[in-house]
## 1
Amino acid sequence: MFEPKMCDTCCTPLDPFMPFATGVVTYKHPAWVGKEWDHDPVPVPNDPGRLRGSCDFCSADHPSTAFETVKAIVMQDGPFTHVFADPWAACERCAVHVRNRSPHLLIDRAVMVLPGTLNRPQRRARRKEIKTLHMAFFQAGPEEVGL
């Protein structure tokens, strides 16, 4: 749906956002808890030789496989419409939970490895956000496609 882009500064894959009112696509760094980006994104087309791979479920480095969904996943984030691009990269530990169709184990893993220091209410709120996204992923019919 949207052309995949990476940040030219840090080689991290960027997330596309589209404000509902304008319909103009912008790219932002992923919203990783505990990660403060020290620069604005500089979107450029993906360069496989420079792209920094990370698991889309838990943010671990070095994904080992990928999953595509049969249906697109579109979610509202305030004034933005967030369209999650295929494929979803997965590290080996998360891939096991996707293959076994174990959404709650996948959510538990994602919450367990959150960077930064979160108190219990913050962790619960983050779990709720992760659960919404991951349940939408499972409802969209994921199929393994490899990297």
## 2
Amino acid sequence: MTKAQKIAAAWASLPVSELTDQVRLLVKARDAAARAVWSAVREDPVVAARVRGALAGLKAEYRGHRDEAMWLMWIGQVQQQLAVQPVAAVVVEDVVPELEPVVESWEPQAWEPRPQPAAPRPVHDAPAVLFQEPAPVAK
């Protein structure tokens, strides 16, 4: 049994206040040992539920705190680590048969220039645009 598994097993019998204090310390640590503990906690559904409850309590405790953003980010990362399921090895078989590439003959087409647009519209066809100076503001 690793140290992380021993910690997770000990957390199963801790009172809520002590568990919250232990979780707070480990959330703040954010090191490799903490990640090992979170993965050990994830394996035991009862301890994982208790730790998720402690994390929710910590989240509520740090609302309005000057370091709220930092703590909420750390708690969110721990919650993600608890939610991640270990990836099982996936065996992928090659089901596509060997295919030979098909090369079709391609002949370039002759370039044709675009037709020239019709003559531009005469200037007097454009509607008149009037600009008016804004009225002075009365004081």
## 3
Amino acid sequence: MSFEEITQKTYCPFAKPSKMGPGITIRTDDVEMELTRHRDLVAEFFRTAAERSRDGMIITFEEPTLGITLDALVNLTRRFYATLTQMFSSVYIPDDPLPDERWYAMIEGELFFLVSFAPCYPETSPRYTHGDQRTYFLLQPASTFERHAKFIDRQRAGISRAFAAVGKPYDARLANVENDIFKAVMPIAPIDQHIPWWSPESTPTNPQQDRLLHTALNG
């Protein structure tokens, strides 16, 4: 199973025709060292993403333990962003993010966000990898959404219904929260509670931030 095959099985019409840039493969659990070696490739992708109409870059983690459980994926996500902060001064992790704040990481002037697919996700999740033991990080530049804005707006509700119809529901309200940091790791159950991956003492949920998130979702 490859990431291309995973996207072909998705019920998101935007994912299938996406135009990807060169990918990166991290072969061991030394994420920090291997990722740093690819700094120039990452920088080049984001520098030219808008000009070349690129929709994303795939980072493949071949070590199965990096995404075998949700806790492992949380740890990988935190390590990944922490490494990016060392590679690029424009990337930072806020200490106490709020749901209604706007936050994106930025590389070479291009804002982006992360979507992860990992073996920890069950068949009922939109992030299911269909038995593939690798973990995939999809880095999506903001320019792709600006380019496809009208199509995405028309399809947004339909995408959510399509996933729900085949037993792969996700919380559309959480997906539409203003602060992207809350969306980097999709929860498994319950699907409407964010995962504070940015905290070294991360637990499945943070009660205070959950209350703020509930207010942002429900008014």
## 4
Amino acid sequence: MEDLELFHFHLERAIYILNFKDKKLAECWVTQLHSSMGFAYTDSFLTAAVLELSITDIDTFHWVLDNLSAWKPYTQLLAQVTKFVLKKLINKGFIPSIDFSFDAQGKILLHENTKNVILADTSDSDRLLIEKVVLTPKQVHSLIT
């Protein structure tokens, strides 16, 4: 039980620190935890923190993935979400290079209708994560202009 309590303590602390939306503060804190707690443990509660934020604090959730996406746990999380979306697209009969493709950053490019099919039966939390790995033509156009 002590391990679970310690994990919960660090999860709450991670959410507290991330809510400041201060990249340098978060980096210093995580560096200290990596040295004292180890990479795997720290990465576990950082992943749990962003998943919790997707339910409890959407603004901080977006800040974390927009500003800390290069961190290993978030890179791995977004890679898993990308794999999940690809599997879902293929299972629904969509064809790579015809119905969807990728941009230079590895985001999935798809039409709005295809995106709606993928998002139709997902939870709000999953929807937020999926939004981080897909782009529609409208979104691409807004990035250019």
